[in-house]
Amino acid sequence: MVHVTWAMLANAKTLSAGLITGVLLAVFLQHITHLHLPSDDFSRNGGLGSTTHAFLDNMALSLSKPLQMAQQTWRHAAYKSCRVAQSLPFCQQPTISRLPTPIFSSTSRTSFSTTSATMAAQKSFLEALKDRRSIYQLNKEAPKSDKEIVDIVNQVVLHVPSSFNSQSTRVVVLLNQEHEKFWTLTAEVLKPQVPEDQYKSGTEPKLNAFKGAYGTILFFEDPQPVEDLRKAFPIYAHNFGDWSEHTSAMHQFAAWTALEAEGFGANLQHYNPIVDQKIQNEWKVPQEWKLRAQLVFGGKAGEAGEKQFKPLEDRVFVHGAKN
């Protein structure tokens, strides 16, 4: 995933200058012994004396910062190319925490339409994109089997991109009774915190509607790969938190769109962090994982409401198009 901002472009210019400076200085340092230094600065055996050593030490100290910046720029450029990164000793993939073993694994790539060959024949990506809407009226009539649902999620997690290939997204798929249990636990957490009249009139009916769906996908972010990247690339450390959120959002969107293409309806909820502790204890989720969203899905018992669109000319700007 490529992230380009004006600040990063400015940083790139500075870092490129540091890289060039570092290379030139490296060449200079290799030939420093050939400079004409005062004769009394050499020891009798032809070695460098104390004055020259001090001179070189001071030069190395003053150049350490630009050289470090140049090295980070080079490492970043190599890392972003997977082929190059694998061939360089200083480019190592960040540690990726092990994902829980999927309940099901796919043995067929042609059994349902999220595979490229059959989905393209039934519905194009842009059509699926248009049809992906928030559907709140859901039932338990799943158009696909549990195995196929998990297959969809597996394909999403495998192939959706992530920042610096961090692969930091973690998902927990809850189906049938486990799905219902999630919304029962959520109600137990919310009921004491919401005024009784508000809970009865608004919160409880909403939670019951979610419970009446077929399943829920919990999206987590594992902070360890993100922290590894902060350490590996300190000049971008302040960005990796945002990029982790982008990674999670892409997984949410891809799963939502893929389920829609299979005939499911879905809506995205955010009861985190209120329910985090209870959920992590119930399903043995690592405490350090951060819950980011809950995708509720099931058979469509209703349609999405009308959607208003702002003018594209206020949102899309094109330069350099030829036809």
TrEMBL record:
Matching entries from Gene3D superfamilies are given as: NADH Oxidase
Give the domain of life. Answer: Eukaryota
Query: Carries keyword Disulfide bond?
Result: no
**Compartment list:** Cytoplasm; Nucleus
Main localization of the protein described in the UniProt heading:
cytoplasm
GO BP annotations of the record are: cellular response to oxidative stress
| Coiled-coil stretches noted in the UniProt entry, renumbered to this chain | none
The UniProt entry's GO CC annotations, sorted and at most eight, read: cytoplasm; nucleus
CDD domains, per the entry: Frm2-like
Span of domain Nitroreductase: 130-298
**One MF annotation (Gene Ontology) recorded for this entry:** oxidoreductase activity
Q: Which InterPro entries match?
A: Frm2/Hbn1 (IPR033877), Nitroreductase (IPR029479), Nitroreductase-like (IPR000415)
Q: Which UniProt keywords apply?
A: Cytoplasm, Nucleus, Oxidoreductase
Q: Which PANTHER family match?
A: FATTY ACID REPRESSION MUTANT PROTEIN 2-RELATED (PTHR43035)
Q: What protein family is recorded?
A: Belongs to the nitroreductase family.
According to UniProt, the name of this protein is: Nitroreductase
